[in-house]
Amino acid sequence: MSVNLKGRSFLTLADFTEEEVRYLLDLAKELKTKRRAGVRGNLLAGKDILLLFEKTSTRTRSSFELGAAEEGAIVTYVGPGTSQFGKKESVRDSAKVFGRFYDGIEYRGFSQKIVEELAVYSGVPVWNGLTDEDHPTQILSDLMTIEEHLDKPLKDVKVVFVGDIRNNMTYAWMYGAAVMGMRFAAYGPKTLAPDPEALMRAKAIADKTGASIEWGDDEAQLLGADVIYTDIWASMGEEEKIPERVALLTPYRVTEEMFAKTGNPKALFLHCLPAFHDFGTKLAREQMARGLDIREVAEEVFSGPRSVVFDEAENRLHTIKAVMVATLS
Predict the structure, then answer these.
(1) Other CB atoms within 10 A of residue 294 CB
(2) Its pTM surpasses 0.70
(3) Is 108 a catalytic residue?
């Protein structure tokens, strides 16, 4: 089947079919090969791209900015607090202005409704660089990394997300796994249960693709995992919840003992980053001085042979570039 994504927005993987996601992954692999050969392209030549950030970023900003530039686009970065967006000017009005200036818009911020409103009123492709409810560009990178390191089709892969299972990464993974027909389990405390609407949406897709979407606090969820995935215990803007989350999530710290419960000696470790795996960060040291160990993954796992987190981080560039090229050129 021919896939044409030109003019489409990329707001959530739930909007896409397996064939469309496969097209993006294959394109990302081609772009990665080209870059490693030292070839700079012109697939976005003549395009003007806005990067609109209401939250800070490392990998997402770098991937969009560098990816666009390497294919010939011109990029404008608008950072947190540097414009009237959503303050003196409504999202709708700003979107209409941006649509007159730019060929594509990336948004990283808070509510999913904001990125959806940008897509409705700008009239150009809009890409979700992270919201409180979703993080689809991260999942594309994760899928690409899994395919690079596991010798089995995605439909045979089981991913277990561990820890805070009601965050944007859990929901993004539920949608991605559902679309690609994968097995997905969220393993965490019942007090952090996934949002019922997000779960229902993912299961509705899974019913059509043959995917399996589960969640629970039973460590049996780990059995047969090909990938254990986690994220920091307190997301952006939730720092005041750190004491509560440490008490709740310490049993879900990813360790080699947890991997042993998968029954799979070849299971991989993935993480969207940044990660607390040692005390090399100011925040980790400050919290430890208060008696709070915020590490969601043990150093032996994060820096060990199971970990593919830096391949995963690199693949953000190639998959994000693929999204821009597919929807603009």
Answers:
(1) 24
(2) yes
(3) yes
